[in-house]
Amino acid sequence: MTDPGTRAALEYVKEGATLGLGTGRAAEAFVRGLGERVRQGLRVRGVPTSERTAALARELGIELVRLDEVESIDVTFDGADEFDPNLDLIKGYGGAMVREKIVAASSQRLVVLVGPEKRVATLGARGKLPVEVLPFGEVLCRSRLRRLGCEPERRLAPDGRPYVTDNGNLVLDCKIAPIENAAELERAIGEIPGVLGTGLFLGMADVVIVRDGERVEVLTR
What is the pTM assigned to this prediction? Predict the structure, then answer.
């Protein structure tokens, strides 16, 4: 049965649309809801942000295309780990933030599905900012991140080995305090050689759908 948040998100899906398909629990719930609509005859194409999402979409019969096969994406649907009153986000606890950011930036609209626990007064309140880095640059990235007040810790997979993204890179989970100037921090981290991207998604979300049980709140930028 499709949950209320997913039903609200599906209102943004039009026949024949090209959709970005995010990664994580909320995004996967949306993909399952979308799969039900596809079985009922809806025609859409999806651009997945991870191999995990791609596998789920194929299982549900959703047509997939690569980013280089489309001119643009109509709407991307994704989750978030934090959102603030400006609808700025922290993402990446699921490890797909670089692909998610590329797909979101290629989209005309970004719709984010979250629970009420993801709402924060200031980004960084949950104390973690994921940063994807090239393995070759890990030592330099760690050193420079510390200078910025971010204490990096290499993410590990369940088997204890280093977690590796679909891009073949490492994730450094940085311990942070609430961020005073997210745009400045994003710029500073992005200038470190070897950094591929951070979990900061600033000015990107157009709609945030907050599901709290059967209650749904729709916030727009």
Answer: 0.95
